[in-house]
Design goal:
disordered C terminus; 46% helix; 313 residues; CBS-domain; Heat Shock Protein 90; five-stranded antiparallel β-sheet; alpha+beta
């Protein structure tokens, strides 16, 4: 349980960096031109219960009017003045392609209620507006989706375990290189005890090892489930994200997203997925930035079954 909670915390932290502002922002921005009156803005803010409204001219943000500005305008008799005379200029904005962690840092530091979102860095073209609530709502949706996904996978795993024997499950922890190779070594011994052909055992061990390393290096942790059947071995691996943006690219030999630290340790050469596919008789992979990556590899242990598969290839 403590390990699971730690992985969940890491997952939320990772999501904060993965989610972009444009994914959570409100695109239907309520704004006013600088020629509008303070009273017009005040009436809108009262009706919609806003604490601030951006002032936009020709699609570009010129300033912002806050509830404090409205109160000050009432106190000094300026409520019918144009907002351009009283708005706050030099507004703090955020580009739409920035991660939401940047936005949360701004909210934490300045205690803003909302941040106008601009198209690109250096631009003043407003494309949306984001609040702290927008970020929390989206994050909760993502976490719930992931939780539901793993609850489903756990249920499937339990049903499978009850229906058949010879199922081995290994938890894989992010960055835990001390346990790297445990699954492949364990399964290799079980297969040797069953007198499986050495070449087939070697292929299965390679798949297991490469899968372990991929989860350790590139994910937030996950598990491997290996099912030994009469004529084949099924290897199923699922991780907790953050997913593979381009599976086709990731399948290219030599392509890697491993950082310098990982490569300095001698890992992350970009051959893991290609090696797994080459060693498997059947191989499939699917990945989502929300729910992580799942892959399945099947290796036939019976020559009678294996030969037709090779002919099809």
């Amino acid at each position: 349980m403590p390990e699971l909670k730690e992985r969940q915390i890491r997952l939320v932290h990772e999501l904060m960096y993965q989610i972009k502002v444009h994914q959570v922002m409100n695109r239907n921005v309520v704004s006013f031109p600088s020629t509008a009156t303070m009273r017009e803005v005040q009436m809108c803010m009262k009706q919609k219960k806003f604490s601030g409204v951006p002032i936009v001219d020709n699609g570009n943000i010129s300033g912002i009017i806050s509830i404090d500005d409205i109160i000050t305008a009432f106190d000094h008799g300026h409520i019918d003045d144009q907002v351009g005379n009283h708005m706050t200029r030099g507004v703090m904005t955020i580009p739409q392609n920035y991660s939401v962690i940047t936005a949360t840092n701004i909210f934490k530091k300045y205690h803003y209620g909302r941040i106008p979102v601009i198209k690109t860095q250096g631009s003043q073209e407003i494309v949306g507006i984001v609040t702290y609530g927008d970020i929390l709502s989206h994050l909760l949706m993502q976490v719930n989706a992931i939780a539901e996904h793993f609850e489903t996978m756990e249920t499937i795993s339990k049903r499978s375990d009850q229906a058949q024997g010879n199922i081995y499950r290994f938890e894989i922890v992010q960055d835990n290189f001390d346990l790297a190779g445990v699954a492949s070594t364990t399964i290799k011994k079980h297969l040797q005890d069953r007198c499986i052909m050495p070449e087939i055992v070697r292929r299965i061990a390679i798949i297991c090892y490469e899968a372990e390393m991929n989860v350790i290096i590139h994910s937030l942790g996950g598990y491997m489930e290996i099912q030994i059947q009469d004529d084949k071995v099924r290897i199923f691996v699922a991780d907790e994200g953050p997913g593979i943006p381009d599976i086709e690219k990731a399948m290219e030999p030599g392509f890697t997203t491993a950082n310098e630290k990982i490569r300095a340790l001698g890992f992350g050469a970009g051959l893991g997925l290609p090696n797994m596919k080459n060693c498997a008789d059947k191989f499939s992979i699917k990945s989502s930035m929300e729910t992580g990556t799942e892959l399945e590899a099947i290796v036939y242990t019976s020559p009678q079954v294996q030969e037709p598969e090779k002919k099809k290839a």
